[in-house]
User: Fold these one by one.
Assistant:
Number 1:
Amino acid sequence: MNLILQGLSTQRHIVEQIAELARPRSIVAIGEHAYRCLDCSYNDEVKSQIDIAAWAAKLDYAFIERSRSLSDFKLVAMDMDSTLITIECIDEIADMQGLKPQVAEITEAAMRGELEFKESLTRRVALLQGLDASALQRVYDERLQLSPGAEKMLQGLQALGMKSLLVSGGFTYFTDRMKQRLQLDYTHSNQLEIVDGKLTGKVIGGIVDGEEKKRTVERVCQETGISPEQTIVMGDGANDLKMMSIAGLSVAFRAKPVVRAQADIALNFVGLDGILNLFHK
């Protein structure tokens, strides 16, 4: 196995200290703040030790089989809120209604897996009833920001011919704009009902929950002739776990502990473009 260690700032001597736990044959710098440690020993005990040491040093780590490369993958599927973008759109929409604390509390419980997603979304959207639909544009213009490294990651993966899917428990208003802005191939999300320029507090059609996210990844794979094993799936909340479970590589991005524990790798400190450092080019 190769061990990749990367951070927002790294010092080689700290990387060497941590890597020594896995007894690498050699250590190669692959970027300003990223290192590949070659031919490491790997078992649960080593992984646990690296996990503790890397977290303390604010470094992200990943054990990757030497034979794997980015070209093994044909599709990247991403959650939107708090993954591709930094905000939870529904919390920011609620802020326009003066209800952010109430809605954010429900969002957090759902992301931790303490509340069933469909119920949580229905409750949150209901609180938006009567809000002027122009609030959606304000959230997009004033608050929506891409996560660090998002554009660089997508450009790198798209350059390899990889397809992209944005699948979200959020709203079409935002995923449609992300699709255009980032040249994404597929999007799927919830549609807010708007009547006479105001939100009704309801969603049109079925709700995109964890099960529907998984089905969407499977559907896009089927349509494009791609195996789920050839997908990279990234997310941050409990409703991403089902689609992450079928991926060839699951990535927890600044995620809740329940998601970090089940993902193949976790990016806690670096940006989304940290994925590009994981494999030999």
Note: The CA atoms of residues 171 and 190 lie 5 Å apart.
Number 2:
Amino acid sequence: MQLDFFPSRTLTLYLAKMFVARILAVLIMLVLVLLALDLLAATGDILAAPGNGQAEILEYASLRTPQLASRFLPYSVLLATLITLVTLNQNSEVVAMKAAGLSAHQVLAPLLLTAGLVALVSFAFNERIVTRANATLKAWEAAEYGPIPDLVGEAGGVRFNVYLTDGRNILSAGTLTGQGKDIVLTNVSWYDRAPGGIIREQVRAERATFAAPGWRLENPVRFDVASATTTDLPVMVVGETLSPARIDLQSIDPDALSFWELAETIDAFEVAGRRTEEMRAKWWHRLSGPLSALLMPLLGSVAAFGLARSGQLFVRAIIGMALGFAYFVVDNAALAMGSFGGYPPFLAAWAPFFLFLLLGETVLIRTEE
């Protein structure tokens, strides 16, 4: 038995089923509670749009549910780990398994296997569902929960709240459709700024198209800040250094792209000589994020061992919870540092994972093996 990593088939299935049931129970509880709180905050804005009703509230809930499930799945695995191991310990099942010759790693093996499968499911779920929900929900929020085009999230589709810089000047648009020279901007604002960043004039237009070079504003209205006067113009060309390729790059939303699409976007940014640290850190985190579920049984394993009658079971559970939540804190901090260029993207995404993997193994080996 000591030469086998997994215990018997019966015991493996027993522990795996117990673990999966608790993961689902905790995840459903967390998603329902958080979704209810989110709906309390967002329902007023949804119903404020003309024509919206219960169907739109349900649509919002359907878009937020995948986001919440993806974000809190690792937390669910952590809490399910603690609940499972504490239950096994209280019922003296861990004592029975160790008396039968199983090592601490063999006791945890079914939970680690289950967590690995959860990580794979989480990655596929993020790529197929969460990215599309991100794109659609951001577009809907940008449209103030009004009607949105059907092309959101597709190649060459619609992007919202585009913010572009042309030197010290700024070009913003409510929506962007098309690609390349066929790009059309709507609800456009052009800000002409002085060297100190002070706005000299603001130009608004309903529509802008590529003028080769620059962007032609149709029926623009110019407001001069110094004189506080408004002027209607027949046509105006702005942003002559903003090429269609540059606009395509600047209007990218990494959270709305799949793993492979984000890799292609990073390559395009590098060819254009643009900064890619933030996107590359998020690209690596697409892998390390779901794998965090694999760490949770290891970090929570401190709750599995030690006699329940010693009175330290609750303390052990708190220690396991603290280790798990410490990982999430360090992971978010490292990802933020990687996005700002403080850490290399690979290190920002993977250093917390390997750090807590070694920490969990060290604690397990020194205390139980």
Note: The two ends are 15 Å apart (CA to CA).
